[in-house]
Structure formats: structure tokens, C-alpha cells
Amino acid sequence: MAIQHFPLKLVSRRMLAPSVGHYAFVRDDGQPLDFIPGQFIQVHFQYADGTATKRSYSLATIHDHAIGPGEAVDIAVSYVPGGAATALFEGLEVGGTVDASGPFGRFCLMPADANRRYLLIGTGTGVTPYRSMLPQLAQAIAERGIQVVLLFGARTPEELLYGDEFRAFAAQHPDHFRFVPCFSRELPAPGSAHDHGDVRHGYVQQFLGEFAPDAAGDIAYLCGNPNMVDACFESLKECGLEVKQIRREKYVSSK
Ligand SMILES: Cc1cc2nc3c(=O)[nH]c(=O)nc-3n(C[C@H](O)[C@H](O)[C@H](O)COP(=O)(O)OP(=O)(O)OC[C@H]3O[C@@H](n4cnc5c(N)ncnc54)[C@H](O)[C@@H]3O)c2cc1C
């Protein structure tokens, strides 16, 4: 898939959590954006001294092929105190544009996968590739009857990005898709929206063993905080998964 350089115009934005924004752009050059769910784009800008820099953002768009002209190119941006791209995104108004390139990356579901189960593990905005993969997962459920476990690490219930959407998908596929939020700081209040039983209190890596990772049938995806990715990678290898069965995307700063 050819890498392209294109302008993105902001169409709308909303807060997903106190410090995470959902940004919906359209390509301002009227062209489609070919991508495979799980891939990311880069946003190019300059520091105050004029030095060029860029940051990477996973595509959150729920799609299973090219995003057509005028269709939304979605990303979720976590605001980092003092962050250069954070300042760019916080100051961006609807109608404003950013320079972007992409798509990049291989953190994707593979057509040749013959596994019985996907273990999808993410923290914070690291869950966005899985949002994008939902149509492909629905297809794999329909065609291959696969199981999917989504272990999503957030500090608090209000940081459960796209939680309603994942829960709705789980309700549509009750025998195949399990959504397990892990809250490191605070559990949902009894009776609140996220208080639906299948939640954990702690870090995602603490609960991997509960799902009995299985070298014979599993492929695991790890996305987000680099420490989480490393910890889960080691745990999964100890469970017998081969490196090729563990696909990783670390959200490191690309300054
Ligand atoms: C493949 C890939 C995909 C990515 N996808 C996303 C995505 O979908 N959404 C998203 O929000 N980010 C994503 N990131 C991270 C993103 O590219 C930026 O690194 C991040 O947004 C910080 O950029 P910034 O310019 O605001 O902060 P910077 O100016 O780069 O950093 C400012 C300060 O904050 C620290 N810092 C940087 N990142 C973090 C962090 N996450 N937590 C705490 N401190 C931090 C830095 O060390 C530095 O001290 C991705 C990274 C990669 C490599």
C-alpha cells in the first residue's frame, strides 16, 4: 500500500475522557485513504524554532477497507502535559488542517490467520486499533467462529475509551467477543454505566493468566504503553506463545 502525504481537515472533535480527544478529519484533497485496520498515520508539524517533527496516531475509523472521500479519518489523541503535538491538537479548531502521511504499520489482522482466538490487549488510546478492527472481527466470527477477548487497561471508568461501543459489540456477539476492562486506580461505582460485572481491578498484565494463553490456538495483540507491552510480551512467551504469535505496537514518542 503506497504511502501518501495529504492534508486532513478537522470536521469535529469531542472529549472521550478528561484528557483524550476524538478527532474526526476528512482528507482535504478529496482522495480516498487506503488502510488496513490497525495501521497508523503520522501528523507533521514544526516546533516553535521551525524544526520539523511528527507524531504517530492509530486510525480509529471503523472500516474494513479504504476510507472514501469525505468519510471520516478518526484518531484518538491523548493529551500529554507539555507535549508538542498535544498543543497542536488542543489548539486545532473545526475547519483547521494538519499535514499527515500514511498509512503505516503491520499491526493488523492477517488474512492467513487460522487461530481459534485473538487476545487483544491495550491500554489508553492503545485500544483504538481494536475499534478499527471491529468489522474484520465480526467477519472472522461469522466465517471462522473465532473467539476474541479484549482486555482494556484504563486508570478509571471515565477513561474507558469507546467502552460503550465495545460493550455493544460484545452484546451482538455474546458467544464470541468478551470485553474485560481493567481499572488500575478505581472500579466503577455500583450501578454506574460501567458496572457490568466483567471488570478487573489492577493492570492488564496481572490478569493474562486467567485467560489461559494457549500456543495452539491464540494470537495476541499488544498496543499502547511500552511497559505494558513488554510485560505482556514476556508473560505470553512464558505461556508458550511464539514471538510470531504476539503482535506489538508500542506508543513511544517519536521526537
Ligand atoms: C505507532 C504509534 C502509534 C501511536 N498512536 C497513538 C494514538 O493513537 N493516540 C495517542 O494519543 N498517541 C499515540 N502515539 C503516541 C504519539 O505519537 C505521541 O508520542 C504522543 O501523543 C505524545 O506526543 P506529544 O507531542 O503531545 O508529546 P511529546 O512532545 O512527544 O512529549 C512531551 C513529554 O511527555 C512525555 N510523554 C510522551 N508520551 C507520553 C505518554 N503517552 N504518557 C506520558 N508521558 C508521555 C515525553 O517523554 C515528554 O517528556 C502513538 C505512537 C506510535 C509510535
Automatic annotation (TrEMBL):
What reactions does this protein catalyze?
Answer: 2 reduced [2Fe-2S]-[ferredoxin] + NADP(+) + H(+) = 2 oxidized [2Fe-2S]-[ferredoxin] + NADPH
Which PROSITE patterns does the UniProt record give?
FAD_FR
UniProt KW Nucleotide-binding keyword? yes
Q: What class of enzyme is it?
A: oxidoreductase
Q: Which cofactor does it need?
A: [2Fe-2S] cluster
| Protein family according to the UniProt entry | Belongs to the ferredoxin--NADP reductase type 1 family.
Keywords of the record, alphabetical order, are: Nucleotide-binding
Entry's SUPFAM superfamilies? Ferredoxin reductase-like, C-terminal NADP-linked domain (SSF52343), Riboflavin synthase domain-like (SSF63380)
Q: Name one Pfam family in it.
A: FAD_binding_6
Which species is the source of this protein? Novilysobacter selenitireducens
> Can you say what this protein is called?
ferredoxin--NADP(+) reductase
Taxonomic lineage per UniProt?
A: Bacteria, Pseudomonadati, Pseudomonadota, Gammaproteobacteria, Lysobacterales
